[in-house]
Amino acid sequence: MTVFSAIDRLPLTPRIATLALAVSSVFFGLVPLLARELQAAGMVPAAIAFFRFAFTGAVVLPFLPLDRGRWRETTLMTAAGICLGLSWVGYLSAIETVPVAAAGVIYMSYPAFALIFAWLLLGQAPGKRAWLACGLVGGASVLVFSDGLDAAASWTLLWSAPTPVFFGLLIVVISAMTPSLSSLEKLACGMVGSVLGLAPVALLTDPQAFFPATPETWLTVLVLGAVTALVPQLIYTVACRHVGPARAAIAGAVELPTMIAIGFFFFAEALGVREAMAVGLVIAAVALAPAVSAAPETPESAPRTRKPHPAR
């Protein structure tokens, strides 16, 4: 067993896994801060998304599963990555032109989509606790929704709507539909898929608006890739298998309070009673969400390692 395959066999309890998911979501919530800095430097949303996924993809590329025995799961995970990568262009466009909290309203609808996909694809009918937790996240989103958006901003938010849909699908694929892939293999498939999806957009973009223009901008790109993609994605992928789609999606809602804090401290956005109530609702939702572990691993479905495991 290699060090890298051993991370999938860490004895994480559902509570610890949920905490890990929440921590990784805090890192995800830093995207608006770094993305706006890159946008101010002249980079377009498609370029920011491409480099964010390309950085992680380059690091985990050696773990891309190429054996024929698992091509279906590899294809599924890669396809989910393609969809998510393309949808990120709309999300980053929203971050650029509307308040961070308003963009978070649309984005944080993904727990509902994760529950729906788990129901449709896995037959895991959501229980009352799951729907209630999802409703609390929805209520938190409504509380922080910014009024007075003009037509252009509203249209931009509409274009960001596919992001939560495909992120909800990705959570289900990671947590329950690719059992034979290790966490690093899932991450490699997802990141490579995102890069493949964004590559045609990159080719059509003006190079001056696509590539970072200064060493400082390149450094910000590297930080964006490492802090908001590589590290938290690996943590998220490992922890997902211990709690299932429902709690994984709800625990990710911790990203919303992070986005609210980013908007307040760095972009002078409002932080009042309703924002504080939204944070409380998200915390309650995470505590309420049920943990439904993925299907138990069999010798055939367990992540492959370089040395075969002895029969049990």
Protein structure class: mainly alpha
Distance N to C terminus = 16 Å
Topology pattern, helix = H, strand = E: HHHHHHHHHHHHHHHH
Label the overall shape.
globular
Biggest sheet features: none
Q: Could you report the average pLDDT, rounded to the nearest whole number? A: 84
**Sequence stretches where pLDDT stays below 50 over 5 or more residues:** 293-312
The DSSP helix count reads: 16
* Helix proportion range: over 70%
Write a compact overview of the structure shown:
With 312 residues, the chain is mostly helical.
Q: How would you portray this structure in words?
A:
There is one protein chain. The protein is built from 16 helices and no strands. The chain is an all-alpha fold and 312 residues long. Helix 2 packs antiparallel against helix 13, helix 4 runs antiparallel to helix 5 and helix 6 packs antiparallel against helix 8. It is globular, with a radius of gyration of 19 Å. The relative contact order is 0.22. The C terminus is likely disordered.
